[in-house]
Amino acid sequence: MSNIEEIKKRRTFAIISHPDAGKTTLTEKLLLFGGAIQTAGAVKSNKIKKTATSDFMEIEKQRGISVATSVMTFEYRDLLINILDTPGHKDFAEDTYRTLTAVDSVILVIDCVKGVEEQTERLMEVCRMRNTPVIVFVNKLDREGQNPFELLDELETKLGIRVRPLTWPINMGADFKGVYSLFEQKLYFFKINKTKIESNVVEIDLGDDRLEELVGLKDAVQLTEDVELVEGVYDQFSKEAYEKGELAPVFFGSAINNFGIKELLDTFCEISPLPQPRATDVREVEPTEKKFSGFIFKIHANLDPRHRDRIAFLRICSGKFERRTFYHHVRLNKDVRFASPFTFMASDKSVLDEGFPGDVVGLYDTGNFKIGDTLTEGENFNFAGIPSFSPEIFKELINLDPMKSKQLEKGIQQLTDEGVAQLFNLDLGNRKVVGTVGELQFDVIQYRLEHEYGAKCRWVPMNVTRACWLTADEKSAMDEFIRLKGNQIAFDKDRNPVFFAESDWMIRMNRENNPKIHFHFTSEFKTEVAL
Ligand code: G4P
After folding, report:
1. Considering the domain 3-49+57-271 in this protein, what is its CATH number?
2. Is 375's C-beta closer than 6 angstroms to any atom of ligand 1?
3. How much is the average pLDDT of 491-514?
4. Which of 16, 20, 53 to mutate to test the pocket of ligand 1 (most atoms within 8 A of CB)?
5. 23 CA from centroid of ligand 1 (Å)
6. pTM of the model
7. Which fold has domain 278-376?
8. Phi/psi of residue 403, each to 5°?
């Protein structure tokens, strides 16, 4: 098969949701529909059990499982579909943000009872930054949820994206009868069924007299009215608007009951984008280019001291990746090759001989990689769009054993290269500050510094809630701002200046008083903060 045919076959996406909305269940059902697994429960969940939230070793053990489910590949309707798993636990949100840089589209799962939750809003912000196309699946219709019109309103206002329902539910909870497909004019009848995939479908126009026989007078009237309202209020579905990340089609269903999945998957196959071109610091790279290129978006460390290897996840962006071939590691300016790169079919790991754009390859790494690294066939460019996001918790790292300063330095550099946390430097006094999105990472870092690098540390909490990356109209304005703000200015690993703010109010005030300085919530400077 030619490269172009291989590219056309591939769809690489992630399922995102607030924890408990049904991401794991939906993933599993998609694999069932795709024939990649035979029984429900076959996919080990990447989900971190609630009972273990204070025990990070336990969490890391559970996270170990997630290597096996990091990428799940299955074939469906002649397509090769790669699902990139994302951790649901809030403390690992950075992992999820970065995974979103490696996909071409996402499916967002919403719990119809809870509606749009906090984590969903954050994840969608990241999708919007990159204009990632989104399909919404409203789950758990077998439960008494919110009114569907209100849910759609909430999606539009909270997520800042236009929506267009493609199916419509007939009731919810105990009275849930099924959905009407607005684009196929078919009624899908709901039945509680956690094990089998079966569907009872009737092709019918809403004006048809049989509708009343099928769903009863009250529900026939309600459905007809609802659909009229939908057609009146929402624009027609446009693939172009979807591809630009402006319009999200919405499906209703119940993942646990295998209901609504097939319509979702079929539509996904029809509209979801193939591997897309990617921006670099030099030029845009087309997937169809002959020469291979790709970037590292995730590094998974093995906490088991007997196996100190790490796994770096590479997204292929162009050309063909081949085993045992030398590729150029742009940051290190050296050539590297891989004896046993691997890929995943469902949950089986297997050695990969060749890979194509859209594919994700697992590479054993002994410390050569950090997040965002680019591999090419010789050309020097770096893929853009793998930003750091502002952490939420900041603590100063204090060395408890002056004899082990070097080990501590090396350890913290390597751990932050893996993306466990972000490292900042306060130039005054050469102090090191670590920023994370969850408390858990501080325990992880402390433990790993001690066990892997023999260095002891403690943490001193800082009164900082946001880090804003700074740019300025003129260098002199930046120099002056840095001089004035003293210890509120830190530098990230690439020596970009960052403003440490106690509150959003503080950012607003500083922005008003310093119009030549621009504040950004990510290390890539597309948009200024909106406060
Ligand atoms: P997550 O990955 O987004 O965190 O969610 P997950 O799929 O684990 O689902 C969270 C809970 O919601 C699970 O129940 C799951 O069975 C349930 N669930 C998923 N889809 C549906 C649905 O369509 N209807 C209903 N009523 N429930 C659904 P749990 O009790 O937390 O776990 P489990 O013991 O069932 O595994």
Report:
1. 3.40.50.300
2. no
3. 92
4. 20
5. 8
6. 0.85
7. Rossmann fold (3.40.50)
8. -70, -15
